[in-house]
Design brief:
mainly alpha, 3 strands, 3-stranded antiparallel β-sheet, 8 helices, elongated, 10% strand
Length: 157
């Protein structure tokens, strides 16, 4: 199947692949990133695993592993349809807000470690100042990210 046919059957393929590459560069595993971005542009009824494999040009096993990962991260959901034996997959409502705010505990823990670095490096004032600034920024993210998501939700409804 040529790229022109895939693009006609699945709008947004190129943009989805570029977005997936960005997520992968930020640390998300490549195949789950590709599956997630394909689901952003899925038909309203979602995609079956076979449809995802066809869209992405990968094996069913690759899709299966990516789907398991994304379900475990609560980013996508399995949809059952009456009369259809095949499960479909789609994004969880507010997957992005959840993904963004789920990092808050990580930022708080990193801030604590930055403080420890500063505390243990008292003879290097520039290093101490840098560690404290990073800790302050991470605490700011911890506080503001959930607020930003809440503000966005309030304004988008």
């Amino acid at each position: 199947m040529g790229d022109a046919h895939a693009n006609a059957a699945h709008p947004g393929v190129e943009a989805a692949e570029q977005a997936a590459a960005m997520l992968a560069a930020a640390g998300m595993p490549r195949m789950p990133a590709r599956v997630m971005m394909a689901l952003v542009g899925s038909p309203d009824e979602g995609y079956t695993a076979a449809e995802l494999a066809e869209r992405l040009g990968v094996s069913a096993a690759a899709v299966s592993g990516a789907v398991r990962y994304l379900i475990s991260m609560r980013l996508i959901q399995r949809l059952s349809r009456p009369g259809d034996r095949r499960d479909r997959y789609d994004l969880v409502d507010d997957a992005w807000g959840g993904m963004i705010t789920s990092n808050s505990p990580l930022y708080a823990a990193l801030a604590t470690q930055m403080d420890r670095i500063a505390d243990e490096n008292a003879d290097a004032p520039i290093s101490v100042a840098r560690a404290r600034e990073i800790a302050d920024f991470l605490r700011y993210l911890t506080q503001r990210m959930p607020q930003l998501v809440d503000e966005w939700r309030a304004g988008s409804g």
